[in-house]
């Protein structure tokens, strides 16, 4: 039996003996689910890592193409005559500290719903952004926001509305005041409720974001802002994620940052 070692990733959220079955297979990611529809992803190196996945070296990724199920045994995965372990467990938590505003006026990447990032002029009113702001204000006031008109909205495996909410949550989790509030007051519907509104992959990103866990592409940007470093490499890496996912995430992030300026 051959052994494959992931370069890094999350702690396995599954009990010993749990069976994971293949959910979907893409060029850069292979998704598995357990009996409760909890997602786990094997990512090809160079495309970042989700907070529910492991990164596999490119030369090893090809050996996973025939796997249709994985058995969890003592922190490792077994399937198709392969043992898959993880070299390094990493944290996906956002840094703490109010972040300087991110300027997206030089980014021409397309969002899923509103055109290029740099053409979404400051001060203009867009119904989709108004939904985000309205939801943030409602949640901040102690009410439960209704995100059903945003979750699942737009194109892609992770729809634009979902990516925007993940970006907004990233901005909130970095702010000490709202980080604590997120742990006390429900921001999103339950996992099962979100599953009825969007894709399982997107549901997993939203569920982790609601708990302060973000992809490595998002974290790279957050930590660059937190440390006062040049953010362009991190921003560009995030913008290259998916067709519009990176741009939509940044749009949600800067929208929440603008809201924080008025409500911090």
- Our estimate of the beta-strand percent is 15-25%
How many DSSP-defined strands?
9
> Can you give the mean pLDDT?
94
- Continuous helix count: 9
Low-confidence stretches: none
Kindly name the structural category: alpha+beta
Secondary-structure topology with pairs:
Layout: E1 2-6, E2 8-9, E3 19-25, E4 29-33, E5 39-44, E6 53-56, H1 58-61, E7 69-73, E8 76-79, E9 82-86, H2 127-140, H3 160-174, H4 176-184, H5 191-195, H6 200-210, H7 216-226, H8 232-239, H9 245-263
Helix pairs in contact: 2-9, 3-6, 3-9, 7-8, 8-9
Pfam family, one: AllH
Organism: Cedecea colo
InterPro entries: AllH-like (IPR021530)
What does this structure look like?
By secondary structure, this protein is an alpha+beta fold. It folds into two domains: 2-86, no CATH class; 117-263, no CATH class. Helices cover 36% and strands 16% of the residues. The protein has nine helices and nine strands. The protein has helices spanning 58-61, 127-140, 160-174, 176-184, 191-195, 200-210, 216-226, 232-239, 245-263; strands at 2-6, 8-9, 19-25, 29-33, 39-44, 53-56, 69-73, 76-79, 82-86. Strands 1-9-8-7-3-4-5-6-2 form a nine-stranded mixed β-sheet. A hairpin with a 2-residue loop joins strand 7 and strand 8. Helix 3 packs across helix 9 and helix 8 packs across helix 9. It is globular, with a radius of gyration of 18 Å. The termini are far apart. InterPro entries: AllH-like. Pfam families: AllH. This is DUF2877 domain-containing protein. It comes from Cedecea colo.
């Amino acid at each position: 039996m051959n052994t494959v070692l992931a370069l890094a990733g999350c702690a396995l959220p599954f009990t010993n003996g749990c069976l994971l079955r293949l959910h979907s297979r893409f060029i850069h990611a292979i998704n598995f689910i357990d009996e409760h529809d909890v997602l786990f992803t094997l990512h090809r190196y160079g495309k970042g890592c989700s907070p529910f996945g492991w990164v596999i070296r490119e030369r090893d990724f090809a050996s996973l193409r025939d796997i249709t199920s994985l058995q969890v045994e003592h922190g490792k995965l077994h399937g198709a005559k392969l043992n898959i372990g993880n070299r390094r467990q990493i944290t996906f938590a956002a840094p703490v500290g109010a972040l300087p505003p991110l300027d997206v006026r030089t980014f021409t990447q397309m969002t899923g719903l509103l055109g290029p990032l740099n053409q979404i002029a400051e001060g203009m009113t867009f119904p989709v952004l108004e939904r985000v702001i309205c939801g943030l204000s409602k949640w901040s006031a102690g009410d439960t926001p209704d995100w059903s008109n945003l979750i699942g909205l737009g194109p892609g495996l992770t729809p634009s509305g979902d990516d925007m909410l993940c970006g907004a949550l990233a901005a909130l989790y970095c702010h000490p005041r709202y980080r604590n509030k997120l742990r006390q007051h429900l921001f999103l519907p339950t996992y099962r409720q979100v599953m009825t509104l969007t894709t399982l992959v997107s549901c997993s990103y939203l569920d982790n974001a609601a708990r302060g866990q973000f992809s490595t592409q998002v974290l790279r940007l957050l930590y660059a802002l937190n440390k006062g470093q040049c953010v362009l490499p991190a921003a560009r890496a995030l913008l290259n994620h998916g067709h519009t996912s990176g741009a939509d995430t940044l749009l949600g992030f800067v929208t929440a940052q603008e809201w924080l300026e008025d409500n911090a």
